[in-house]
Write a structure and sequence with these properties.
Strand content: 5-15%
Mean pLDDT: 76
Radius of gyration: 13 Å
Distance between the termini: 25 Å
Strand order of the largest sheet: 1-2-3-4
Length: 102
């Protein structure tokens, strides 16, 4: 699926790493939402999650269920290299807890 025409080159967008798709760039999900479509994302976002504004539900998706970043343990839902839990349902983790901080 195409989210954006933006390329990071050889860089990888890591959560908390300061990189993300620019907020001034309109994503396909945002265009489709303007046309009245409902947008659902299930899977890996991996487009930046340094703030809530960079997450899927603020970038045109009505529903998100999955990971913000990569290298996530499939069953335990933690980042295998840097640690930390990463599995979300909109703003909530997989236990149903709301998180104000990313």
């Amino acid at each position: 699926a195409v989210v954006s025409s933006q390329s990071t080159g050889d860089d990888v967008i890591l959560n908390g790493g300061g990189m993300a798709l620019p907020l001034n760039e309109t994503l396909m999900s945002q265009y489709l939402k303007q046309l009245g479509y409902k947008n659902y994302l299930v899977g890996k976002w991996h487009q930046g999650a340094n703030s809530w504004r960079e997450t899927p539900v603020f970038r045109g998706f009505d529903y998100f269920y999955g990971y913000y970043g990569g290298q996530i343990h499939y069953f335990a839902h933690y980042h295998t290299k840097f640690g930390g839990h990463d599995f979300r349902r909109d703003y909530r983790d997989d236990q149903g807890n709301f998180h104000q901080d990313i």
